[in-house]
Structure formats: structure tokens, C-alpha cells
Design goal:
By secondary structure, the chain is α+β, with helices and mostly antiparallel strands. It has a single domain, classed as Roll (Thiol Ester Dehydrase, Chain A). It is built from one helix and five strands. 26% of the residues are buried.
Length: 121
Amino acid sequence: MEKIFQTTHLVKAEDINNHDTLYAGRMAEWVVESAYIASAQTVGDKGQMVCVNLNNIRFIKPVLLGDILTLQGQVLKLGRTSLTVEIKAFVGNAVCLEGEGVFVCVDHEGKKVAHGIQKEK
């Protein structure tokens, strides 16, 4: 999987913690959102995706008020029902966060279903 999905956020006053940096909870929200977009866009109309795990989230560099944060999601692995998405966050060219999210395809009752995407060879 080569496609990179990108989202962008302006860091506003309501996103800032008592250390005058981006609140980790807000960053985590944006990470899950970005990883969901990558998984949902990859699966398309074949099913609904839900987050089941966040792995190895590393906060590398503080993000400040007024920064424009870009998150990039790329599908790394495909399982029968799951996708593992690598997430990186940047301010300019500086990496601020790295991690992974695992999403599973579910039916309308919340049960795992195959997403039907074929692995590239």
C-alpha cells in the first residue's frame, strides 16, 4: 500500500495544555481521526471501520499554539478483517509524533467481516 492520506489542523488556544503545548489528548484524537480516514478510504464502501488498538505512539516534539500540524496515514499491513495504519505528524518538516492504529472492518451489528481488499504482491 503506497497511498498516503493527509489531514491538517491549526493548533488553537482550546487545544493547548498547561505547558503551553498541544494537549496529548487532542493529538490522540487527531491521530485516531487520521488513521480512520486512511483505513476508511482504503476500504471504501466495503465496510465500516473501527479502531481496536493504538500502538507505539511516540510524542517526539512539542506542538505549539499557531502551529499547522499535518498528519499522514499510510496502510502498512492488511489482514483479512483488519488494516494497520502508520501515522506520522509534522510541523513543517519536523516529525512530532509517530505511531500505528489498527482498524477492523465490521458489519452493522459490530461483528468483524472481511474487507475484501487483496494484498499487493
